[in-house]
Every structure is written in C-alpha cells, then in structure tokens.
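Figure caption, in words: inputs first, then the predicted bound structure.
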Amino acid sequence: MTTTSTRPKSLLSVLQGDTGPRPPIWLMRQAGRYLPEYRELRARAGSFLNLCYNPVHAAEVTLQPIRRFGFDASILFADILLLPNAMGQQLDYREGEGPVMEPIRSVEALKQLGERDIHATLAPVYETVRLLRKALPETCTLIGFAGAPWTVATYMVEGRGGNDQAAAKTWAYGDPEGFQVLIDRLVDATIDYLSKQVEAGAEVVQIFDTWAGALPEADFRRWCLKPVLSIVQGLRERHPNIPVIAFPRGVGLNYASFAETRAINAVSLDTAVPMDFARQLQKHIVVQGNLDPRYLVTGGAALRREAERLLQALGHGPYIFNLGHGIVPETPPENVAELVKLVQDWRA
Ligand code: CP3
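Bound structure (coproporphyrinogen III present):
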C-alpha cells in the first residue's frame, strides 16, 4: 500500500493516545532557508521580522514545506523572540549574526519596559494561525509554539545568541529573586500568548527550551521544569484539552522529570538521547525526535539507515518522527522529500 497519510490528523491522534499504523512526521524548522521559495519570499519581504509580522507572508512560508513534502503537521512560522519584542524589548535579526536585542540585566531594566499589551504586537501572529487553519489540508495538524521562559530569558539577558548562557546564569545565580521576576513575567505572558494561538486555531503547542541542558539539576528544576509546568497549568485552565509537546533540549536523564509529571503529552528528544532510554520514556509519554539534522545533509544510504533505526526502535509505540534539533540551511530539499516518503510508507 502506498497511501501517504494514515487518517485525518495523525499527529493529534497520537497525542490523544491513539497510535496509528505509522508515526506522523514533521520537522523542526521545516520552513526556512534550505528552501529556495523561502529565500525568495524573505528577500521580497526585506527582513525576517517583516515575514513574521505579515500574516499573508507568514502563512505562505508555513505552507511551503507542506505543499512540497506533505508533512503530517505544520508549525506556525514565527519566532520565540517575538514575545520579548511584544513586551517592549527591541529586536533585530542580522545576517550571519542572528538575533540582537538591548540586554536586560536587572529588575530595574525590566521595569523600564513598562506594562504593554503584548497582543497589540502579536495580533498578526494570531491572524497567521487563522489563515493557516483555513488553508491547511484536512490531515495536517497545526502546531503553535512559544519559547520556554529560561531559553527566552537567555536571549533577553545576553542580548544575542550565544553558547554559554553566561549573562543569564550570572543574574540567576547571583540574584535569584530578581531573575524570578523576569521568569514570572515570561510565564504569565507565555500563557496569554499560547492561549491566543489556541483560540485562533492552533491544535497542539510546543514549548522550546533549547538551552535547558545548560543548567545543573536544582537550577534546571527552578528555571526550566517549574516555569514550563506553570505555563501548562495556566494554559489548561483556559483550554483543558490542548496537547503540549515539551522540548527541553540536552537535559539527559531529566527527560524523565517531564514524563513523570503527567501534565505534558509528549517530549521532543535531542539527538544524543539513547534509544533504550527513549523506549523507557515511551512507556509513560509520547516521544518525538531525534534524527540528527546532519543526516539530512548527508542523505543517501546513511540517512535511510538512521531513519529506519529510529522507526524500528520507536515506531511500534507512541511516536512522532522528527529531528533532534532544527533543519540546517545547507540541507538539500530532495533529502527531506526522501525522508518523508520513507516514514510515510513505513508500517509498524
Ligand atoms: O519552521 C519552524 O520550525 C517554525 C518557525 C521557527 C523559527 N524559529 C523560525 C526562524 C521556530 C519554531 C523557531 C524557534 C526558535 N527561534 C528557537 C527554538 C528552537 C531552536 O532552534 O533551538 C530559538 C532558539 C529561536 C531564536 C532564533 N531565531 C535564533 C537564535 C535565530 C538565528 C539563528 C538562525 O537559525 O538563523 C533565529 C532566526 C530564525 N527563526 C530563522 C527562522 C526560519 C532564520 C531567519 C532567516 O534568516 O530567515
């Protein structure tokens, strides 16, 4: 049989506890620079932020990989740093440099942002979600998202992307009460932001905690696990049935802390998570992941072998096929097409 979809909304079904004949597939950063049609529209829009804040462009960019590859889920095109931008922090994306912001390193600096209505800035994002729900195929689940407070805070405090999260740690370790004020503000704003995405039509939400693996255990619990659980709790007060996927990248054995809570429907595993451990987690929670995005650059027999290894290991249980982190810009689109076909033709 060569049907390309299992049934309506296979991603939603898995998250609701109903595993089909093969896992659904979508890929983090499935929209973006590896696609020529994305580069073309981004050039016309003038900047990445113009794309994000223009609902027609953002919806188009979201749909590009759906048309090309027939993914089972679609992730809203936006960025985790739109939220601090809506809270009043200046944001710019520079070529080859990534995000650049005016750093916030004290409660004083945070207060200078004032109290703003985040929805005034974020309204175009909700409009993008509405457009997508109308345009997406019946079988394709729409995923909304936000950054986790810790990861968003690392950019707000550092003022740019980095690899050691030094500025955020300096604040969190030296003045935890002050840093808590920032995290609490992000928790409240994220609940509001995700609720509006759900009201506009997002069917699942994913919370990206890209830098969760940088913290020692006690700090991980305080700055990653607890705020993410507070967000889920706040969101569920408004939307009791909304499925949540958490991506606490690099947390190792602490993935089990998310599985144990029962509040989260799925964990997205980074590339380094071993299959035996993933299968243990799968007894308690849906798992998503964790193909190394570099296999998509390599392609060919190596890609096929690695994808089949993942399908054999995890495809017989509740599983969403994905990468361990986002697609990289140098990925050949034909390798993505081959991977999607391989997963959609596979049967448990
Ligand atoms: O397709 C999708 O996955 C949806 C859109 C999406 C983007 N960013 C678009 C984007 C999502 C879900 C994100 C999440 C995001 N953004 C994260 C968490 C996930 C991860 O990758 O770790 C983080 C840390 C950010 C912050 C961010 N945005 C950085 C550090 C950068 C610069 C690095 C880079 O990859 O360029 C961005 C820019 C960005 N966000 C691009 C895209 C498509 C590239 C912008 C461009 O130049 O066109």
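Residues 1-6 have pLDDT under 50 and may be disordered.
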